[in-house]
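agent> call fold_tool(seq_1)
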Amino acid sequence: MQRTAKGIEGLRSAMSNNHARILLGFNEPDISSQASMSPDQAVRLWHQYIKPTARDLHLRLGSPVISNGQNGIPWLRDFMNKCGDCGIDFVACHWYGPNFEHFKAHINSVHQAFPNKKIWVNEFALEGSPSESAQLGFYRQASSYLNSLGFVERYAWFGAFRGHSGNNMISDHGALTSLGHTYN
C-alpha cells in the first residue's frame, strides 16, 4: 500500500523489490489523521506514480482505501470522476462502527456507489472496546454476510496483534484468541 504521499517517489522500487502482486491506493485519504489529501491531489499522484507502477509491474490495483466516515464514499466518487481511466481493479474500504446493521449498510452503500467493481474490506471491527465475545459474535455474523455477497472479493479483520482489546486475534502471550481461532 502507498499509505500517504510521503515517499511515493520510491513506490516502483518498493513494489518491485518486494515482488508485490497487488497495490493499494492511499489509506483513508478522507480523514485528516490518515492520508489526508484532496481527491485532486490523489488523482495527480495516481497518474504520476500509482497507475504507471501498477501497469508496468502488472499489479492488481485497488482504489484509495476509504473510511466509513461521512466523507468516505463522496471522497471516492469525486476521485473516480476526476481520475478518468485510473486502472482500478477493485474498491477498498474500511469499517469501524457500532453494530452489524451499520456494517451491512456501509458495505451495501459502497457497492451501490461502485456497482461495477469488486469490493475489498481491508479492515473491520466493532469500534470502542467491546468484549472479545461481542467482537467474536459480530465477526461471525459479518463474515457470514460477506461470504454471501458475490461482489465482495476479500476481507480482513482488524486486529492481528497482541493485546488486551477484544478485537485482537493474538493474546498477550502470543497464542490465538477465540477470535483468532475463528478467523484462522
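agent> call fold_tool(seq_2)
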Amino acid sequence: MFRAYPRHSVDISKKEYLTLFSMIFSRRFHEGEHIDQFEKKFAEYTGTKYAKTVSSARLGLYLLLKYYDLSENSEVIITPFTHQSIFTVIKSFPVRVVFADIDEDTYNVTPEQVERLITPDTRLLILTHMWGQPGRMHEFAQLAEKYGFRIVEDCAMACGAEYGGTKAGCFSDASIFSFGKAKAISTFGGGMVCTNDMNIAEFIENTTAGYRPVKKSSLVVSVINAVIANILTRPSVFYFTLYPVMRFLNIRDPYNPVEHKKGSSEILENIPEGWKVGFSNLQAAIGIIQLENLDSANSLRRRNAQLLNRMLSGMESVGVPEAVPGAGHIYLY
C-alpha cells in the first residue's frame, strides 16, 4: 500500500521576510505595540469582544479549564478524534470525559449525538472544527442554552472558517486558536483565546502577565524550520527532493494532527514550566500581516479543494470531503 504524503506548505510572504529580518535582532523583538494591535484586530476579525495571545492553544484550553473550576462530578463532552494535546490537558482536571461519536462524512460531532449524551452533570462541550470545517453551530448553541452548559470552540484548524456567514470562534463562551506550523495563520508558535466574557479575558491576561519572554534562540529555530519548509514544500521542489527522501526512508507525515505522540499520557498537576512563556512582539507583527491575507489565502485553498473534489467525484473508489450546509470550510489540510 502506498503511503500518502500531504504537502503541508508554510507560506511566508516577502513582507513577512522583511519584518523578520528587521525585528529579529532588534529591541522590538519582545516588546512593542504589535501585541495589542494583533489582539484587537483578531477580536474584530472573529467578531468577539476580547482576544488574548498565549504561547499555545493547549495552554489556552488549560487556562479556560482553570477558570471554569469544574467540580469532580462534572462531565465534559468532546470528540475522540482530535489532537492528543487536548486530552493531555483535560486529564489534568477532575472531570469525567464523555466521548461523542463523529459523523463519518465530516469527522465532526453532530448536535443529535451530543444531545443523547447530555446529563444533569454536563458542564462543558469542547467542539473541534476538524480540518477547518465548523459544525452546525446554531444548533449547538441552542443545546447549550437549553441544558445550561458552556461551549469551548477548538478553532486550531479553523482560523477564518465560517458558519452562516459568521466566523468560527464567536459561537461559544470561549475559543482557542493555534498559530503553529501548517496552520492558516503561522507565527512560528503561539495561539489565541477569544471570548465575549470580560472576566475570562482578564483571567487569561493576569495569569500570563508574569510569564517569561519566549527565548529568542528557540523562536529563531522555529523561523529557520519554517523557512526550510517554505522552500521544500513548493511543488517543483517537493516532488524532486523531500518526497523521494520520505518515500525511501518510509517517513510518516510529520504534521499528522491526530497521531498519538510521546508524552500524551502525562497528567499535569500544574502548568508545565515550558508552557509559561509569553507571546513576542515579533510574532504579533507577523500575525498582523497574516491576518490581513487570511481570507484571500483561505479562498484560494477553498477553490483548490473544490477543483479537486470535482476532478475526483466520478471515481467510485474515492470519497471527497463533504461540506456542512452553511459552513465555510477552509480545507486546512
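agent> summarizing second result for user.
Residues 111 and 142 are 9 Å apart (CA to CA). The first helix runs from residue 14 to 23.
agent> awaiting next instruction.
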